[in-house]
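Operator note (shift B, R.M.): manual run for U3 small nucleolar RNA-interacting protein 2 requested after the automated queue skipped it. Running by hand, logging everything below so the morning shift can see what happened. Input copied straight from the record, untouched. If output looks odd, do not overwrite the archive copy; leave it for review.
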Amino acid sequence: RKKDNEADEIEETAQEKKLRLAKLYLKQLRQQGEYLAGWVHVAGQCRGCAVCEQLQPPDTAAIRVLRGHQLPITCLVISPDDKCIFSAAKDCSIIKWDVESGKKLHVIPGGKKGTEAQHVGHTAHVLSMAISSDGKYLATGDRNKLIMIWEAVTCKHLYKFTGHRDAVTGLSFQKGTHQLYSASHDRSVKVWNVAENAYVETLFGHQDAITGLDSLSRECCVTSGGRDGTVRVWKIPEESQLVFYGHQGSIDCVQLINEEHMVSGADDGSVALWGLSKKKPLTTVRQAHSNHGAQGLEQPYWISSVATLLNSDVVATGSHSSSVRLWKCGEGFRRLEPLFDIPLIGFVNSLKFSNAGDFLVVGVGQEHRLGRWWRIKEAKNSICIIPLQRTAAGSAQPADGS
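Run finished. Output pasted below as returned.
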């Protein structure tokens, strides 16, 4: 009996663990593929097709503007069913909006500095936000090093995560789970289990403040490392990281396009497309939003935000160049070609495509989300909902996907 027990307790080798995880991942991919196939047919479009060829420049008169925050919007997310938008700003407030009517459904007011003990909510600039893929939890991070967890439906405060030593600048839930990743100016990435109100682990590697974070279904996340000039992919189970070099300036934002490709933007005005199997960018567009300044003193417009239409070939970038620019990813993600510009005055601090891909939400502010280097007085601190129009061929596709 003792020998049998010992045999049962023998731990699997590293090779066996890799094999088991690979089989599990393939099983999840098959299940996800079946689910997405059904979803694509219901949605009446195939993301595998060239979505960019169906998109048309929107009518500026159709852009809806939602006003509610007193100071610049810093971050936003869209609920999984595309019915609600959550936004946050430098006024420390969080607002839940109804997409169809544009009305406020709930407001979580910001508190004054020094009232942390009694105020339910943030008392410092809210810099990051994430919503779980089942729409149950909303996570928000602020300049006071705090992460707050809310019930997304009722906006009820659930709990508070402490542990970061500086501003929390990036948050993302692993899709299909309640595992939360957070990134901070303290150069660390932390992993949390929101359902169990628990801290899991901390990952180190960046040499400068982390400015952005994203994740999808795999148990890994990507981060942009500001002035350390790197984008990193963190493999959580293996506790390892991949380091990518490409930009010349501070890398301020990063987003995954699919499980194998991502896009990043930097304050040197460049936008880079990456494949997770190569350490250098597949392609880089310099001065993606052109230059500004007097002749001989021109400076590129900083790339302040990027967004991707998940599993498609469409990317959006934002700056303070008076427009949001949409891009087409070329074959094999080796080219990035401009599609069209959408005029918007102000700092584009946050961009999000709806899950169905029928609208783009923009968080606009008079200032950059991380500082006060410039102020654009004519800009309005607002949320803009931009409908994405399709060509007749794209919009008239049969619902059964045939």
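Quick read of the result: The longest helix spans residues 14-43. The first strand starts at residue 55 and ends at 56.
Leaving this for review. - R.M.
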